[in-house]
Amino acid sequence: MPAFDLPLPDLEHHRPEPDEPADFDMYWAAALKEAAHRDPLVSVRPVETGLRLTRTWDVTFRGYAGDPIRAWFSLPAGARKPLPAVVEYVGYGRGRGLPHERLTWVNAGYAHLLMDNRGQGDQYGSGGDTPDPHTALSGGPGPAVRGLLSPPDYHYRRLITDAVHAVTAVRSLPGVDPLRTAAVGNSQGGGLALAVAGLVPDLAAVLVTAPFLCGIRRSLELTDAGPYGEIAAYLSVRRGSEETAYRTLSYVEGVSFARRAQAPAHFGTGLRDTVCPPSGVYAAFNRYGELSGGAHPRKEIHVYPFNGHEGGEAEQVRRQLVWLESQLADRSPCDRHAPPIDGAAFGSGR
């Protein structure tokens, strides 16, 4: 696929006017308020994975409307003090899979929480374990169009709320330094991490590659690939519903979350990406932190001119590892004589 979006010099200055409803902040305050005073954790149970260098727990935490959300939580075996945490969000149609599939962050020395996607997990990977009890709401079968014509019922209101509560959950787990928590994701996962950056003011860092739900109107005009294609197909049948759908989508626009973010940010995009077009990524990057209230947060973006949705793959991950270490490194001396963090710290069968 040849480059199809704006030329790179134009992308670097691409700052479209925000497509943002006046009650954007009220919408999200209402969505997040329900679970604000509840214990975030439902259960934390150890899992035998066969891995000697990693310890893993099956975590259930409370998400949107108190719904139980599954996640894998992993620590490096023998960790002796609270570690910075990486909360990772997975792509569209994926679930959390199996606990041994995503080991990069825990192998780098971080506490790692991998959130399941409610009502997804049946398109790619090794599946998921979190149903969405609200799927009877109006809309098509795909997550991108569930509840699309009603802002309070839209799938991403629930999923983004889950993503925010995942940060609260990981901060309450033993072995985690709550002041050093990062949100990470690619594609849909990148869109969720960006939303978390806009909704969690004390996040320590955010890393997003090819984030979905950025520059949504333009992306729908540019591509029929992936989730945007599902939205286009849905509206091709429900003629005349476009503005209603656009209003719903404006509440989950990644550029609006980016404007409110305060954490240092690491972005990545492929210029031939037809799934999450680079103009959407740059719209979020160029406006990132502009409403943060003080000095703009540090940010950088890595561009892959001949790559599509796969972006920089392992090269991008290498850059993320180096960058995140510079943001979250613990520069205090390591207590080598402290005992390892014991499984008993998680309670018995919680």
From TrEMBL:
Superkingdom, natural source: Bacteria
Region feature (Disordered): 120-144
DNA damage found in the keyword field: no
Gene Ontology MF, one: cephalosporin-C deacetylase activity
Class of this enzyme: hydrolase
SUPFAM superfamilies: alpha/beta-Hydrolases
Keywords: Hydrolase
Enzyme Commission numbers on file: 3.1.1.41
InterPro entries xrefs: AB_hydrolase_fold, AXE1_dom, CE7
Domain Acetyl xylan esterase: start-end pairs: 1-325
PANTHER family hit by this protein: CEPHALOSPORIN-C DEACETYLASE
Annotated protein name in UniProt: Cephalosporin-C deacetylase
Native organism: Streptomyces achromogenes
